[in-house]
Amino acid sequence: MTDYISTLNEPQRQAVLHGDGPLIIIAGAGSGKTRVLTYRISHLIEKGVDPFRILSLTFTNKAAGEMRHRIESVVGTEARNIWMGTFHSVFAKILRIEAKALGFTSNFSIYDTDDSKSLLRSIIKEFGLDDKIYRANVVFSRISGAKNRLVGPADYLANPLIQTDDAAARMPEIGRIYKAYTMRCFQANAMDFDDLLFNTNVLFRDHLDILNKYQHKFKHVLVDEFQDTNVSQYLITRKLSAVNQNICVVGDDAQSIYAFRGANIENILNFEKDFPDVRTIKLEQNYRSTKTIVNAANSIIARNRAQLRKSVFTDNEDGTLIEVIKAASDNEEGRLIATSLFEAKMQDGLHNTDFAILYRTNAQSRAFEEALRRLNIKYRIIGGLSFYQRKEIKDLLAYLRFTVNQSDEEAFKRIINLPKRGIGDTTVAKIAVVASENQVPIWEVVSNVNKYVAGRAGIAIEAFADLIKSYQLLLDKKDAYDVAAHVAKTSGILKELYDDKTVEGLSRYENVQALLNSIKEFVDNPDNDDKSLSAFLQVVSLLTSADEKDDDGDNDKVTLMTIHGAKGLEFRNVYIVGLEEDLFPSQMMLESRADLEEERRLFYVAITRAEKKLTVSYADSRYHYGRLKVCEPSRFLMEIDPAFLKVAKTRKAEREESQELKRDTPAGGSMSFVRSLAQKTAKQQAPQPTVAHTPSSDFAPSDTSKLAEGMRVEHLKFGFGLVQKIDQNGNDRKAIIKFETAGEKTLLLSFAKLKIV
Ligand code: ATP
Ligand code: MG
Predict the structure, then answer these.
(1) Catalytic residue selected from 115, 195, 225, 228
(2) Is 305 a catalytic residue?
(3) Ligand sitting nearest the alpha carbon of 38
(4) Disulfide: which of 271, 482, 608, 732 matches 478 by Cβ 3.0-4.6 Å?
(5) 194 is annotated as an active-site residue
């Protein structure tokens, strides 16, 4: 066993060793909050607390997995018994156990956002409302907002105050839609994501015996990323720890980035009111990042008015300056970042996993993907259109869902005519309406179809019902994999994809195989006691986009993700890209100071992911909704103290600058942002300027096999230089080159982008 206590600083040690009673740690990024939680749980178990009685809530399932793994290395396999996961996954588990109390059965389906919107569209249509006014997206987010504030349909309808915003004025029927939606979910034995928290609250509010059971079960409740819990989540944790008072929360108000989802900094402030005996511990030392990065991040966040003041310092090295890269277009931004990454990798002998490219929105990933692919650098995209959102995957999962839960209306709609059975949309809509009007499950109608639908469609539905019945018979006898493989084969899904010989068809077929493989893995994993299909579906429906893993077995990849997804993570070198007005800060978030401050916190989160080196970039133009748009550098760039910045100069800027200097124009005024920064940089970096080189426009690397001592070369980034020496070592041929501005560098010739001039 490692002596982990000795690796902690004093306040960290106090937090880990803190006995009973509420504890809150609000501290800056990289100060060891997550590490403290991990060791605190290990310590509790060592002291004899039963892992089954520890509840630990994390931001992603992946974070939970990592934490569990670390704890396991201290206390052994007992760590597997901790109740650990996201709020959604932990409370879905409790809801399954207690489903009866709420009138659900334990095999309820979990509707994803697409299912929810599809159901809303049906309801809007059935109500005869205009779907251009009642857009499913908007209605969905209204309902979601209400649930997160714990406002149920009855309260929503009864309290017009809740509805006095402009959207409500245009959409007076939202309350009625909300009510119908809730009813339909209930009939479908389904909960959406928000219901998992909403219904947990209802469960604990209306069933005190059940609440009491869990209050006593969980001796300790711990929450990471506490700043991003919403009211509904906070109430659950507060109730659960009301008896034992052993609640430990860690977070950073400066990293609160989910206000749009109802997360609320107020929770941090309320915590001290709700738990008057709370002990507060501050962590101030950052162990993750260089001084440059920590101080730059501090300089940014200091601009926010709404924050709890705290200091963050580090004893780490100063590190290199933050590099600013300016590109002419979004495509060039992709190329410049990929090249920079490639060179850093070669020069410092790094792995792909040392790098992350972080952006504000998923749509930005394309340019980076293309550029990385061209340089043969492997990457993984977290988020975006994820594996589980692909049509073929959702199709098979819908079959599996309907096999487990025959009330699942959305699963039914997806598969009833897949493969084609000649059942039209009208028939499908009719079945849903009949079920809803008679308040019976969909299955009731489907399995007695001759009462409701005549003709060919009726016969087809009967055949479908028989097929599903044959699947149901397997549920008790076979594990998740056997059932799924059987369903894939006999439902016709695999065959249809197999028969499609196009490239896309092939890749869809492979995706279904990949899903089956992952079910096999689930069944073979000794950590999973319950190998049933229903258990697998529960895990799958709660995966967040940050949880996905790659299937090609190669783990050395650059990570591409949104900043939201990067919370809690760390990478050696980080690129924050697209730093332009209206993109970051986002146009949608500029209505108020509160919005702007949230964007600034997001920028703070991004900066503080970097350990050694941070690069930020922006483009002068980019395509936006199909139109070329001229962009302005983000105000956030200007908010970083320029003492921490190094700007890559363009040739044009260099020329203009030297003219400006000749004319002795003072900085500021009409001078562009880039030039003024470049000047500051030049002053700061003398006598050895390290500005990056902008290659000639026709830069095409030469064949370096003929390279010899004394030759003059141009390098993509370091500029012009003289070859001092060539070194041959096995297959590695290296050149030592003295560059005019960048100094002496050793380059691997198989990788170096050089031109002999
Ligand atoms: P964030 O706010 O980004 O979630 P955090 O406060 O949770 O950050 P951690 O991720 O726990 O910080 O720690 C940041 C890094 O510093 C990790 O690599 C961790 O292992 C390291 N670290 C934390 N405390 C110490 C310590 N006392 N000694 C050495 N390294 C430490
Ligand atoms: Mg953390």
Answers:
(1) 225
(2) no
(3) 1
(4) 482
(5) no
Name which of 742, 643, 613, 745 is nearest 688 in CA terms: 742
The one catalytic residue in 184, 414, 609, 613 is 609
Contact 561, 382 (CB under 8 A): yes
Closest atom, ligand 1, to C-alpha of 35:
11
Query: Which single residue is written with the structure tokens 């005869």?
Result: 128
3-state secondary structure 495-538: HHHHHCCCHHHHHHHHHHHHHHHHHHHHHHCCCCCCCCHHHHHH
Return the CATH number at 493.
1.10.486.10
536 in Cβ contact with 420 (< 8 Å): no
CATH number of the domain within which 138 lies: 1.10.10
Q: Which of 8, 225, 288 to mutate to test the pocket of ligand 1 (most atoms within 8 A of CB)?
A: 288
For residues 107 and 407, what is the distance between their CA atoms, to the nearest angstrom?
10
Active site residue 609: yes
Helix (H, G, I), strand (E, B) or coil at 599: helix
Same domain, residue pair 512 and 407? yes
Question: What is the edge-to-edge ordering of all strands in the sheet holding 571-576?
Answer: 379-381, 558-562, 355-359, 571-576, 610-619, 322-327, 645-647
pTM summary value: 0.79
Q: Indicate if ipTM > 0.95.
A: yes
Q: Does one domain contain both 149 and 206?
A: no
Query: Is residue 570 domain-shared with residue 639, that is, in the same domain?
Result: yes
For residue 47, pLDDT beyond 90:
yes
Residue 33 Cα, ligand 1 centroid: separation in angstroms? 6
User: For 559-601, how does the pLDDT look when each residue is reduced to its tens digit (9 = 90+)?
Assistant: 999 999 999 999 999 999 999 999 999 887 777 888 898 999 9
- Both tokens assigned to 51: 């892992």
